[in-house]
Amino acid sequence: MQKKFTKIFSITDKKNKSMDLVFCQVQTTKTNTKMETKNSTPNHINFDRHEIYSTEMVDMNMDLIAESKRNNNGLTNSLYGLFDGYLYNSIKESNDPKIQKLVMMIETNIKNQNLNHLLSLKLKRKIQISENNIFLYDMAKAKADGGYSKEKVIEFAYELSLNKFQAEKIINKIY
Fold it and tell me: How far apart, in whole angstroms, are the C-alpha atoms of residue 73 and residue 99?
């Protein structure tokens, strides 16, 4: 182990005593050992098994675990990991057609779940826009019924909507 001291700066107090702020850096060197870098990419994909798995997939996974124990192929723990929502690269890279079928089913269901999530977000956004338009229409209609000029209602609608196209559609419905 090698220590390296670096003086950063000195401070002198009222009694002219000097104090040094020192940074200590410790360096270690290993001899006759192979240094390896860790792979920074994750070796698994997380998923929600309760959302992804069907009963057929659970049965298939249990059969693969039993077969893996008999063959001692080193994938048993990774196959158990599927029940916890971990799809390990070792399983994805397996050449066993049964394992590949299960992996394909998992990945397909993950993609479908992600797609459904995106579609539900789009639907929520459409509902929100629709509700905003109803509110804007009601407010603009109240202004028009209250005797405001068309120009004032248009100005008000623009301020509320921040979308001129939607505001114009609503104003055209009122007038």
Answer: 12
